[in-house]
Structures are given as structure tokens and as C-alpha cells.
Amino acid sequence: MSGQGEALTSSSYIQHHLTNLTWSVDGGWNAHDAGFWTFHVDSLLVAVGLGVLFLWLFRSVAKYSTVGVPGKLQCFIEMVIDFVDENVKDTFHGKNALIAPLALTIFVWVFLMNLMDLVPVDLLPIAAQTIGVPYLKVVPTTDLNVTLGMSLSVFALIIYYTVKVKGFGGFVKELTMQPFNHWAFIPVNFLLESVTLLAKPVSLGLRLFGNLYAGELIFILIALLGYWQLPLYFPWAVFHILIIVLQAFIFMMLTIVYMSMAHEDH
């Protein structure tokens, strides 16, 4: 095969692994011009499935937990809960019973979605093709729709608690009277504070997406090496574990920080 053919084959292989299984209201399954209401079915199914797994696992451990010497799974779950709880206590300075469960959900759910990046890139897509599913992306956090969807949910909570704690007038005052506390600077303040506010969900979503998308792309490039991929796959997988945990931790910590700022009433 010529170099051009190999390049085309490699390009199509990469493109296939980066394509979502989609369904749209207008075009149906995998339509090229699907319109706005297009659902990434694989990302949704995997994300929801991992969310259900998280809820089932933690509920099962809580239901059958013992007061004596805990088992390995119970010990691990308790370590995760204590880790999240300590970070919430150190970072969040308000009073809200939602924050700790929210932080735990974000950390574990994002970690589980990131963890799917360690599954060999050909394993599940080939299995899906045998039952007639043409595309399958199994890492939801490499889908910008998922990461921005989560960050926009956090953004909605930030706005809600800012208005609840400080009142609508306090929220407007933050946007118009900071950092320059003078009426003449209201347009400048509003521009600066609006950019800062809108940057929160964008930075949350793009940071998670960018890191995991890059990691997935490297796994795909390693898979192109065929039988020579193993010497590179395992070192990168070990390094990528750090990225998986770190990105889940960063998403959780930034959420806690933003929620703490929303509860600060000066």
C-alpha cells in the first residue's frame, strides 16, 4: 500500500474512533446534516450508565456497611468520602447541605467517565459493530456536549445560590459595582464581571474536555502501531491514570470554590 493510502487508512481509522453514534429529530441515525437537536447516544448511554453504577455501588456499600472491621470496598468508599468531605470543609465557607453530596457526585462520576479512556480503543467499538452499531465512543468526557452540559449545570447552581444568598439586588450590584465602586464605571464593571462570570462554565467544560480528548487521541495513535502498541500503551496508561484522577479533582474543587464564592455575602 502506498504512503498516501496508509495515510488515508490511518485518517479514516482516527475519524471513525472520534465519531459519535448520533440520532436527530430531523435526520434520524447518523445523518450528515442532522440539525440542532442531535443527540450523542453513545455519550449519553455511557454517562447515564456510569452514573447509575455510582449510585448503586455507594448505596450498596452504605446499606451493607459494618461497624467493625470494614471490607476492602467499604474501606475504599469511606476513604473517597472522607477525602471529598475534607476538601469541602477546607474550601467551602458557607452553610449548605448540598455541597458535599454535589462534590462527591462530581468527583466519582467524572472519574468513572474518565476511566473509560483506559479501555482499549478497539475493544468496545468492534464489539458494537458485530451487532450493527457503526460508531461508539465510550469516553463521555471526550464529548464537549457532556463536559459543557455538566459545567452549565454547575453554572445554574452558582446563579441560583448567588441570588438566594445575596438577593437579586446583590447579584446585580456584584456585576455593576465591582471592581470599581463608582457609578461612572458601571459599564466597565459589567463588562469585566460578565466575562469573569461566563468564563467559569466555559473553563470548567473546556479544561476537562481538552485533557481527555488529547489523551484519547494519543491512545488512538498508539493503536495505529498494531502489535508494536503494547510497549507504548502501558506507560501512557499509567501516566494517564494521573490525568484521570487530577481532572476529576480539579472539576470538583473548582465547583466547590465557585459555590463558596456564591455564598459569600459581603
Written description of the protein model:
By secondary structure, the protein is mainly alpha-helical. The chain is 70% helix and 3% strand. The protein is built from 8 helices and 3 strands, in the order H-E-E-E-H-H-H-H-H-H-H. It has a 3-stranded antiparallel β-sheet. Strand 1 and strand 2 (28-29) form a beta hairpin. Helix 3 (72-91) packs across helix 4 (99-115). The longest helix is centred in the C-terminal third of the chain and has 38 residues, at 186-223. The chain starts with a helix and ends with a helix. The relative contact order is 0.13. Residues 1-8 have low confidence and may be disordered.
Key words describing this protein structure:
mainly alpha; three-stranded antiparallel sheet; globular; disordered N terminus; 266 residues; 3 strands; single chain
The rounded Rg comes to 22 Å
Give the strand content: under 5%
- How many β-strand stretches? 3
Side by side, the strands of the main sheet go 2-1-3
Low-pLDDT ranges: 1-8
Mean pLDDT: 88
N- to C-terminal distance: 69 Å
Question: What is the overall shape?
Answer: globular
- Tally the helices: 8
> Could you state the oligomeric state of the chains shown?
single chain
Q: In which range does the helix fraction lie?
A: over 70%
The helix/strand series, from N terminus to C terminus, equals HEEEHHHHHHH
Category by helix and strand content = mainly alpha
Quick recap of the structure?
The chain has 266 residues and is mainly alpha-helical. It has helices spanning 3-17, 41-63, 72-91, 99-115, 123-129, 144-176, 186-223, 230-263, and strands at residues 22-24, 28-29, 38-40. The protein contains eight helices and three strands.
